[in-house]
Amino acid sequence: MDARVLQIEGVRHRYGALTAVDGVDLRVAPGECVALLGPNGAGKTTLIGLATGLLAAQEGRVRVCGGDPRSAATRRHLGVVQQTMGFPTTLTVAELVRGAAVRAGRPAAAAGPVLAEVGITDLARRRSAKLSGGQRQRVALAMALVGDPDLLLLDEPTAGLDVAARRTFWQVLARRRDAGVGILLTTHILEEAASTADRVVVLHRGRVVAEDSPGGLSARLADRTLTARSGVDVVVLRGLPGVLTAVRDGERVRVTSAEPERVLRAWLPLDDALGELRVEGAGLEQALFALTDDRSERDDETMGVPA
Amino acid sequence: MTAVVERAVERREGFDARVLGVEVAEGLRAILREPTALFFAVLMPVLFFALFAGIFGGYTSPSGLPAAATMLATYGTFTVATVMMVNPGVTVADDRTRGWLRVKKVSGTPIAVSVAAKVIAALPYALLSLLAISAVSLLVAGPVLDVGTWLRLVGVLLLGGLPFALLSLAVGFVASSNATVAILNAILFPMSIASGLWIPPEMLPGVVQAIAPVLPTFHLAQLALGQLTGAGGLGHLVALLVSTVVAAALAGLAYRNLRV
Question: A88 and chain B: CB distance < 8 Å anywhere?
């Protein structure tokens, strides 16, 4: 097998005048989980579509386990959860998962253990028409896993899942990753991406604007978050030198700043009772926001597009 | 990063007949569990046959055969054409609009296998309809065909359903489910009337009689009648083959532009 389960090189894809993916390079190794992050319209779903072979790259090269993802033989190495997966309403969960096993070249009997792994054995005899949105997502995951894929491509896989189901979902993914499965996923739940992904790739306007570990990406931002119990009005705090944002959450206030010491020097004299102070680095969400927001402003200026 | 474990997954490669089996089974379940789509396709031709066989079944046709026998050929053609034209196209359109065709494509299922399964899954229902009209004929007019002739007739009708299934797929590849039903019925009913499947062609206006030889339903009906009379049907067979090629080309063209 190729050393990389997914290899995307210099790929471009356009929809008419819109360039959805613009010269992206991306690799996923066996046993690696890569989270693809970015705002809506960044090109994440297009990139997943290219990796599944549903879209043909107009420029560049896409390889899955060394093969062309548009060939049926290569696709059997893939497990895919798409954003919108419609199942025939006449089939039961067990029939859907058994069918997925056979389509992936595996025995139909592989369905039973996977239903148990995903925690939907009790739904086995239920018709897909009677499933909730979250249950459908879990069935989709079971269908993606039952073929014992080498690469999992998951487009917003936790959308619609409750907390318990999400926890199970990430546990299942972690086990598969530890077993050597490569994973490329998109998500809007950044905490989950931070806790599970080995690497984060940030897309914006079809381009990779950052690629790092979740911690490494957060550390790139000079901004710090100061959290403290304080009675000072956030409007006053926002006026202090060095404060970028100030938000109240009950008794606590969260302030972001690139100069935390300067902020503290101005804040402490205003509040004798200030307590439970914590200074932390920026989170992944702030890093993502900064990366994509700054970039969009710069791009808008360059391209002459009105904001 | 987590340590990588060597994975050894046993996986069947190349064409797997089990995939076709799964596809056919899913198609049969779909019809069995949600039969409303085929309700009119199966029931209506049978009711039509019961009505007209009840009125005219006892007469003798110009060929000297009992009218109930010739009606088995013409209404049998209508029955098979209805099932084969409605079912594969509508289910493909449904799968496409639902996103299920995309799921299957990503899974590595060749779409050709998937659509072949839809045609195969429709055949038992076409056979069921033929059995139903045969039972009605038996009730109304008694045994009008020997078993060998009846088997030949059923075989010709089922094989002759292929161009209708291909035409059905061509529409189903491009239109929505509802539009597919409307378009296919808009093709099927005029074609059936003009081919003399409901009333003898001799009773139709001249202009309609002139159109009939370009319609596949006409040629299938004539081939079916030929099984009863022993008349040679080479010309009708060739015409039906040409229809199949044209329908296959249309289906292929639609498939090439298929967006899943």
Answer: yes
- CB–CB contact B103 A86 (8 Å): yes
Q: What is the pTM of this model?
A: 0.79
Q: Extract the tokens encoding A135.
A: 């249950």
Residues A303 and A246 sit within 8 Å (Cβ to Cβ): no
Q: Give domain limits for chain A.
A: 6-216, 222-281
Q: What angle do CA A59, A65, A71 make, to 5 degrees?
A: 65
Full pLDDT tens readout for chain A, 307 residues: 447 899 999 999 999 889 999 999 999 999 999 999 888 888 999 999 999 998 999 999 999 999 999 988 888 889 999 887 889 999 999 999 999 999 998 999 999 999 999 999 999 999 999 999 889 999 999 999 999 999 999 998 888 788 888 888 989 999 999 999 999 999 877 777 777 899 999 898 899 988 988 877 776 666 778 889 999 999 999 999 988 888 898 889 988 887 888 888 899 889 888 888 888 776 667 667 767 765 444 333 322 222 2
Q: Which CATH number is A6-216's, of 3.40.50.720, 2.60.120.280, 3.40.50.300, 3.30.1700.10?
A: 3.40.50.300
Contact call for A31 and B2, based on CB within 8 A = yes
Domain spanning A222-281: which CATH class is it, in words?
alpha beta
Give the ranges where B142-256 is alpha helix by DSSP (H): 147-159, 162-174, 177-194, 206-211, 216-229, 234-256
CA angle (A82 as vertex; A78, A86 as ends), nearest 5 = 115
Decide if A87 touches B, using CB distance below 8 A: yes
Contact A76 B13 (CB under 8 A): yes
Q: What is the ipTM of this complex?
A: 0.81
The phi-psi region of residue A197 (left if phi > 0; otherwise alpha if psi is between -120 and 50; otherwise beta) is beta
A91 vs chain B: nearest CA distance in angstroms?
7
